[in-house]
Design the sequence.
């Protein structure tokens, strides 16, 4: 059975080291903040100027002034800090973010990422993605394996405009965990009951 979003988040968390810094992209990756256990002592960074995000707030603690980069309300942990965008992006560009987890429209085996626009559709902007994929020490993609029309989103080369070139380290989908290495995707793990045929990918870019 394919993994749920929560199970995908747990797979991503296994790559984190204790006491690391993590930036979570908008959408699916934000689930990770709710799944990280306190014993890991991870500091979650949001590029709008927060270090120390801690999942969702309760109804009693929710505040309209505490939001992440996707404008969702957040909770914060003890020791959290707040700063302006200049300092926040200085942290990213200075290489101080250990991991970033982003969603994607396409990833190819050359480690390229497309996650910000589809030609002909309304574009709201790239946000901090271009900085994050180049400034973070490790880039993990968390996304659905298939597009809305049922095509696999792991490709030999991206069709959509690039966000970053040669930047993706790991891809986690509901079907498994994959590592692009320049010529193909290594299958690190498949969800229980999933086979290579279920992935609907070209066998030339897939390697167990």
Sequence:
């Amino acid at each position: 059975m394919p993994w749920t979003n929560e199970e995908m988040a747990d797979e991503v968390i296994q790559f984190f080291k204790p006491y690391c810094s993590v930036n979570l992209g908008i959408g699916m990756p934000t689930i990770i903040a709710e799944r990280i256990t306190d014993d890991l002592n991870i500091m979650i960074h949001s590029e709008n100027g927060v270090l120390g995000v801690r999942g969702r707030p309760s109804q009693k603690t929710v505040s309209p002034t505490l939001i992440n980069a996707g404008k969702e309300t957040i909770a914060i942990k003890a020791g959290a800090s707040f700063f302006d965008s200049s300092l926040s992006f200085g942290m990213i560009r200075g290489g101080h973010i250990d991991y970033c987890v982003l969603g994607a429209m396409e990833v190819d085996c050359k480690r390229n990422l497309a996650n910000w626009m589809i030609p002909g559709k309304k574009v709201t902007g790239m946000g901090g993605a271009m900085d994050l994929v180049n400034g973070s020490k490790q880039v993990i993609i968390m996304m659905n394996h298939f597009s809305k029309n049922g095509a696999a989103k792991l490709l030999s080369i991206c069709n959509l405009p690039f966000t970053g070139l040669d930047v993706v380290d790991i891809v986690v989908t509901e079907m498994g965990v994959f590592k692009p290495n320049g010529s193909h995707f290594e299958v690190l793990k498949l969800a229980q009951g999933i086979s290579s045929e279920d992935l609907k990918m070209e066998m030339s870019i897939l390697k167990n």
